[in-house]
Model the fold of this input.
Amino acid sequence: MKRSLNHPMNRGVERHKYICWVNQVIAASRGRALNYLDKFRVHFYLDARHSHEVCSWVQFALEKGAQHLELNCFQGNGSKKRRNCSFPMLQPGPLSSIGQLKSVSLNQVSIDSEKLDRLLSTCKSLETLRVSWSHALTHLEVVSPDPLQLKSLELSFCSKLETVVITAPTPDLVSLHCHGSERGVTKLHLKCAPRLVDLLIGGCRDIARLAPQPSLSFYLAQLESLSVTLQRKIYPRVPDGIFWRLPEMKNLKHLTVLVDDKNYYYKDLYDVNFLIRKAPFLEHLTVHARCCMQFQDARRRKLKPKHPLQHLRMAKYVGFRGFRGDEQLILHLLQTAVSPEKLIIDFQDPMPL
Done:
């Protein structure tokens, strides 16, 4: 018999059953039956009321030497919004194998800056860290002379996140995704990330604030993939001073841009055009468009590419609604390439970066 968990009553009953079932499995596994655990995953409707259970489960996973930890404590649509369940403060101990963790993924789990710093400083073998929808996280600062083994770091939709500073060497870091709210990430600093090739900067203010920072500009030149959000209601007349400092990104092959002009009437293609000009060897361009009702024709004509990209083969437009602005932006994408091979027009709603 199928029952929808979107109904609060069904969800409460099934949640109780789920917690009891997990506790039973853990109790049965504390003996000799299970001496080693590679991966521990929790996917269910859990919130702050169940933090004690979640903490005990994490402790069990560490005792069993888990290398991969994943907590997805989503609350679902239509439910009364509650605080996220809390991630424990990790404490190395004789029974704990914290140092063996290689990947941690936390979705709608509350972890503050102190706990996250402890996680990174304690888990020396950590290669992948994903934290999403944690509203307790305000900053990440890792200050250490010892190198981290991180290969991928993703901090997404953490509404209070403002600062990301990693002075510890990250010689293996390949991918960095930071997404702030409308306040945006005001500071992003990496001391040593020679292999960084994939960067996502989300949030409507982030690109305007971060572009002038020397640390970020240094790494832009080595990127192969870049994703940014542009929202002109925050800076309606962006002067060249913000973007001209960006280096030429000769290694960039994939560029994804979210054009979010909601609630602002003055629209043009200034930022999109400028970013494209900075990537002469671009191969794939994706534009996610929100509320692009109409671009000003005069501005569009002035921004017609003087030097179309020789290597651009595919352009993708997500969020087509049939508005005049959609048609103008698609035409601009075609004019950007010398010999485009594929144009994809997607009618789905654009996703936030």
User: Anything to note?
Assistant: The radius of gyration is 23 Å. Residues 234-241, 263-267, 296-301 have pLDDT under 50 and may be disordered.
